[in-house]
C-alpha cells in the first residue's frame, strides 16, 4: 500500500486533454424507454415492483387503512346506536326478571362500539378494529354462555341452538376489517366454541329428545358447517381482494415513478436548454468578433477570437454528445467485457483525464492517492475508468477550488449487490455471504450532500436543487451512468455524507476482486 | 425617502449618468454583469467593437452592484443566473438605491418560461433578453435602452404592473 501526494496543476492537466475533457462527468448515456405498441400480455401481466421505498410502502398501507376507516365510520357508530337503543329495554327486562343477563350483554357491545367509534374518528384503525371485534364477539359469547353454562339451570336448550348462527358476525367482521388469516382464526374459534358448549354443557330435556330423533344431530352439524363455509368463503374473497389491492398498489407505485421520471426528464430538457444557450451565444459572439477584427485587419485579435470560438465549440459538442448518448447507457452496460486488471494504473489514468473546472483559475489542488500496487479487479477497465473520471470530476465541480480530493482503493469483505432473478424476487439465500471485493472511494471537501437526498442522486436526470440553482453545469446523468456501469459489473455504488458543508462527501463503489493476483 | 430628495437624485442622474448619450459615443459606459467568463468577454468585446461603448465588467452580483454605484454606467446588462447575488436580486438592489435607481437595466437570461420573464420585469428591469443573442442585437438593445426616456420607462413599468395577473405585494420598483 502506498500513500502519495500529487500536486496537480490543473492548467497542465488541461493541456494534456485538448478537447475539454471528452469524458466530462455528466456526459454519457442512459436509456429512454422505447416507444412500444401495447400488447395484451403487457396488460394482463401484473406489474412487479422490486423494491418499495419506505414512503411507497407507507402510501400503500395508507390505502388499506382508509378503506377500513371508511367501513368503521359506518359500522362502529351503527353498533353504538343499536346498543344505546337496546340498553333501556335490557334494563327493563332484567328488572322484570330480577336477574343480571341482558344488561351485561348490551354493555359489552356499548363499550366496544364506543371505543371503536372514538378510535375511528381519531384514525386509530387497529384499535377501532379490535374494539369493534371484541365488542361484538363479547355480546354473542356472553349471550351463548348465559343460555348455556351460566344459565339457571346451567343447561343448553333446543331453542338456544339458534344463538350459534350469530357467530357468523365475528367471522364476517374479521374478514372485512382484518385479513384472510383473521377470518380463518375467527372461524376456528367459532367452531371450537360451538363444539365446546354443545359437548360440555348438560343438554336440556327438549334438546336431548331432539338428538335422539333420526337426523337430530343435524342441529349441530348444520350451523357448524355453515360457519366453516362462511369462513372459507371470506378467506378466499379477502385473499383475492388483497391480491387485487396489491396489484393495484404496484400500478400506483409504477405510475407515480413513471410520472416522477417524466418530471425529471422535463427538468433535464430545460436544464439542457439552459446549458446550451450560454455557449451558443458566446460562440456566435466570438465568430462575429473574429469577422469584425478581420475586416479591421487585426489578425491577432481575430486569431484569439477564433481560438476562443473553437474552445466553446469543443465544450458545446461534448455537451451535445452527452445529450445524444443518453440512449447508449444500457447497451454499454450489457456489452461489458470483464477482465482482470490492475486498479492503480486505471485510477492514475483517470486523474490525468479530468480537466480543470470551468472558470477555475490556475489553482493547485492536492490529490491524495492510497492505492495498493497489487490490487486488481475483475471488471471492464474502460467503464471503471469512466466511473472514476465521473466521480473525480464531480468532486472537483462541487468542492471549493484548492480543496484536496482523496482517492483510496483497497480490498474489503463485502456483500455483493442483491440481484433479482427473473421473477423479480431478490434471491437472498444465494447472496448473503460476504465476498472479497475491491472498494474504491473518492472523497472531497465540498458542500456535502443532504443525507435524505443522497440515494436520489444515482437516478437519471437528478440534480440537487442547490446545484440547479448554482452555476455548476450538469445534466444529472453522471452518477446514473456510474450506477448503471458499476451494477452491470457486479458492484455497488453509494455515497456517505453528513450534509455539513466542508465535511464533503465520500463516494464508494465496489467491484469483484480478480481471483488471481496479476503477474505484473 | 422624501419626494424632494428623490427628485433631486433623479436630476443628478440625468446630468451625471444619462447625459453622455447626447455626446460622443465613446463616453457611454456600459456595465456587463455575467459570471460566465466567455460570455462576459464576448459581450464586453462586442459592445466595444460594434457599439463603440466603454465597457466595465463584473463577474458576480456583488461586484456588479459596487461598480454600478461607483461607475454610474449609462446601461447595465445583467445575467440572471449568478452565484451569490443573482440577477433579479441585483436589479432589485439597484432599483432600491436612489443612486442607481434610474440606470436602464437589461436582464439577460437563458430561462424562457413566462413566469421567469414576469419575475424579471417586475423586479424592475427595463428589457428582458433571451439568450442566445447575437452581438448586433445586443448593441441594438443597449441603444434602445439609451434612447428610452425616464417618462417612457416609468409608463412602461406601470403598464407592466397593471398587466401582471397577480402583482406581488412589494412595490415593483423596489422602493
Uncertain segments of chain B of ≥5 residues (pLDDT<50)?
A: 1-23, 166-175
Unreliable spans of chain A are 1-35, 419-431
- For the record, what is the CATH homologous superfamily label of chain B? Response regulator
Order of helices and strands of chain B: HEHEHEHEHEHH
What spatial form of chain B do the alpha-carbon principal axes imply?
Answer: globular
Q: How much is the average pLDDT of chain A?
A: 80
Helix count from the secondary structure assignment of chain A? 16
> What structural category arises from helix and sheet content of chain A?
alpha+beta
Q: Helical content of chain A, roughly?
A: 55-70%
Q: How many domain regions of chain B?
A: 1
CATH topology grouping of the largest domain in chain A: Heat Shock Protein 90
CATH class of chain B: Alpha Beta
What does this structure look like?
The complex is a heterodimer of chains A (520) and B (175). By secondary structure, chain A is of the alpha+beta class. Chain A folds into three domains: 2-31 and 329-512, Heat Shock Protein 90, CATH 3.30.565; 54-253, no CATH class; 262-325, Helix Hairpins (Orthogonal Bundle), CATH 1.10.287.130. Chain A is 57% helix and 11% strand. Chain A contains 16 helices and eight strands. In chain A, the strands form two sheets. In chain A, strands 1-3-5-6-8-7 form a six-stranded mixed sheet. Chain A has a two-stranded antiparallel sheet with strand order 2-4. Chain A is elongated and about 125 Å long. Chain B is of the alpha/beta class and 175 residues long. Chain B has a single domain (3-12, 25-163), classed as Rossmann fold, CATH 3.40.50. Chain B has seven helices and five strands. A five-stranded parallel sheet of chain B has the order 2-1-3-4-5, with helices on both faces. In chain B, α2 crosses α6. The longest helix of chain B has 15 residues, at 37-51. The termini of chain B are close together. The model of chain B is unreliable at 1-23 and 166-175 (pLDDT under 50). The chains are: A alpha+beta (520), B alpha/beta (175).
Amino acid at each position: 500500500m502506498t500513500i502519495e501526494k500529487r500536486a496537480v496543476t490543473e492548467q497542465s492537466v488541461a493541456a494534456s486533454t485538448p478537447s475539454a475533457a471528452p469524458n466530462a462527468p455528466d456526459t454519457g448515456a442512459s436509456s429512454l424507454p422505447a416507444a412500444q405498441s401495447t400488447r395484451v400480455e403487457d396488460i394482463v401481466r401484473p406489474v412487479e415492483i422490486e423494491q418499495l421505498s419506505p414512503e411507497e410502502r407507507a402510501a400503500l398501507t395508507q390505502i388499506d387503512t382508509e378503506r377500513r376507516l371508511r367501513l368503521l365510520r359506518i359500522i362502529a357508530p351503527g353498533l353504538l346506536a343499536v346498543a344505546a337503543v337496546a340498553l333501556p329495554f335490557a334494563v327493563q327486562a332484567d328488572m322484570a326478571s330480577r336477574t343480571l343477563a341482558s344488561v351485561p350483554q348490551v354493555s359489552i357491545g356499548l363499550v366496544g362500539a364506543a371505543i371503536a367509534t372514538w378510535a375511528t374518528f381519531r384514525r386509530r384503525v387497529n384499535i377501532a378494529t379490535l374494539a369493534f371485534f371484541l365488542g361484538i364477539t363479547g355480546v354473542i359469547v356472553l349471550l351463548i354462555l348465559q343460555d348455556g353454562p351460566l344459565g339457571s339451570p346451567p343447561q343448553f336448550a333446543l331453542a338456544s341452538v339458534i344463538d350459534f348462527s350469530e357467530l357468523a358476525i365475528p367471522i364476517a367482521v374479521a374478514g372485512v376489517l382484518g385479513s384472510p388469516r383473521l377470518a380463518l382464526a375467527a372461524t376456528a374459534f367459532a367452531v371450537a366454541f360451538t363444539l365446546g358448549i354443545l359437548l360440555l354443557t348438560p343438554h336440556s330435556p327438549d334438546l336431548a329428545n331432539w338428538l335422539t330423533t333420526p337426523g337430530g344431530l343435524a342441529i349441530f352439524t348444520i350451523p357448524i358447517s355453515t360457519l366453516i363455509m362462511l369462513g372459507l368463503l371470506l378467506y378466499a374473497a379477502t385473499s383475492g381482494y388483497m391480491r387485487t389491492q396489491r396489484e393495484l398498489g404496484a400500478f400506483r407505485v409504477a405510475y407515480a415513478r413513471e410520472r416522477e421520471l417524466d418530471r425529471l426528464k422535463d427538468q433535464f430538457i430545460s436544464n439542457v436548454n439552459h446549458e446550451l444557450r450560454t455557449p451558443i451565444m458566446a460562440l456566435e459572439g466570438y465568430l462575429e468578433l473574429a469577422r469584425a477584427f478581420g475586416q479591421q485587419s487585426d489578425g491577432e485579435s481575430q486569431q484569439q477570437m477564433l481560438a476562443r470560438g473553437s474552445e466553446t465549440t469543443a465544450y458545446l459538442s461534448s455537451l451535445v454528445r452527452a445529450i445524444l448518448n443518453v440512449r447508449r447507457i444500457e447497451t454499454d452496460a450489457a456489452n461489458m467485457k470483464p477482465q482482470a486488471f490492475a486498479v492503480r494504473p486505471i485510477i492514475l489514468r483517470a486523474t490525468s483525464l479530468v480537466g480543470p473546472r470551468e472558470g477555475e483559475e490556475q489553482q493547485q489542488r492536492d490529490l491524495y492517492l492510497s492505492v495498493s500496487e497489487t490490487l486488481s479487479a475483475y471488471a471492464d477497465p474502460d467503464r471503471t475508468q469512466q466511473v472514476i473520471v465521473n466521480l473525480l470530476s464531480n468532486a472537483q465541480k462541487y468542492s471549493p477550488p484548492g480543496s484536496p480530493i482523496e482517492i483510496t482503493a483497497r480490498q474489503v469483505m463485502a456483500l455483493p449487490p442483491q440481484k433479482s432473478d427473473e421473477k423479480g424476487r431478490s434471491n437472498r439465500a444465494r447472496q448473503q455471504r460476504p465476498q472479497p471485493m475491491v472498494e474504491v472511494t473518492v472523497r472531497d471537501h465540498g458542500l456535502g450532500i443532504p443525507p435524505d437526498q443522497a440515494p436520489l442522486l444515482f437516478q437519471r436526470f437528478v440534480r440537487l436543487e442547490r446545484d440547479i440553482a448554482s452555476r455548476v453545469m450538469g445534466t444529472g446523468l453522471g452518477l446514473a451512468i456510474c450506477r448503471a456501469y458499476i451494477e452491470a459489473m457486479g458492484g455497488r455504488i453509494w455515497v456517505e455524507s453528513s450534509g455539513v458543508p466542508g465535511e464533503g462527501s465520500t463516494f464508494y463503489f465496489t467491484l469483484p476482486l480478480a481471483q488471481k493476483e496479476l503477474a505484473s | 425617502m422624501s419626494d424632494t430628495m428623490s427628485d433631486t437624485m433623479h436630476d443628478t442622474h440625468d446630468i451625471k449618468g444619462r447625459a453622455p448619450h447626447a455626446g460622443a459615443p465613446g463616453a457611454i459606459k456600459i456595465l456587463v454583469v455575467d459570471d460566465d467568463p466567455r460570455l462576459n468577454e464576448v459581450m464586453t468585446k462586442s459592445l466595444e467593437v460594434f457599439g463603440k461603448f466603454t465597457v466595465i465588467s463584473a463577474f458576480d452580483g456583488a461586484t456588479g452592484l459596487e461598480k454600478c454605484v461607483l461607475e454610474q454606467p449609462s446601461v447595465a446588462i445583467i445575467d440572471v443566473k449568478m452565484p451569490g447575488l443573482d440577477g433579479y436580486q441585483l436589479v432589485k438592489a439597484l432599483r432600491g438605491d436612489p443612486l442607481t435607481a434610474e440606470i436602464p437595466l437589461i436582464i439577460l437570461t437563458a430561462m424562457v418560461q413566462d413566469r421567469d420573464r414576469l419575475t424579471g420585469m417586475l423586479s424592475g428591469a427595463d428589457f428582458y433578453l433571451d439568450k442566445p443573442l447575437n452581438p448586433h442585437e445586443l448593441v441594438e438593445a443597449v441603444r434602445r435602452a439609451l434612447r428610452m426616456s425616464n417618462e417612457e420607462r416609468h409608463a412602461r413599468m406601470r403598464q407592466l404592473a397593471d398587466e401582471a395577473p397577480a402583482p406581488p405585494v412589494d412595490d415593483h420598483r423596489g422602493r
